[in-house]
Design a protein that fits this description.
This protein is an all-alpha fold. About 75% of the residues lie in helices and about 0% in strands.
């Protein structure tokens, strides 16, 4: 068993490396906060990411089958709630609830 000074040194080195790895992204990104490109992306990226997720989730949707209505209605409810209340949590929870309810009752296999 290693002596106490070795164990303390190991813990201190581990803590220092962990702290440095967690602080490094903040230090590296600090100069970028003033960049016009980063400010533009910060306003456009959330909508772009959501659009990519919607396309990815609905890409294999069999539109000829009636069960395809559940996700389509859920997406419509999500968009409607978001346009109405501008609350992401409400929109996500509302759309998810509608999808779960429709998929497990009306459009259950």
């Amino acid at each position: 068993m290693p002596d106490a000074s070795y164990a303390i040194a190991a813990v201190l080195v581990t803590a220092a490396v962990t702290w440095a790895l967690r602080a490094l992204p903040f230090a590296a990104l600090a100069p970028l906060r003033e960049s016009g490109t980063v400010q533009y992306l910060s306003t456009r990226m959330p909508a772009g990411v959501m659009l990519i997720l919607v396309v990815y989730c609905l890409r294999d949707l069999p539109l000829a089958q009636p069960r395809a209505l559940a996700p389509v209605v859920a997406v419509a409810v999500t968009v409607g709630l978001h346009l109405w209340r501008r609350n992401a949590l409400l929109s996500i929870l509302g759309g998810t609830a509608v999808h779960v309810i429709l998929s497990s009752t009306i459009f259950a296999p």
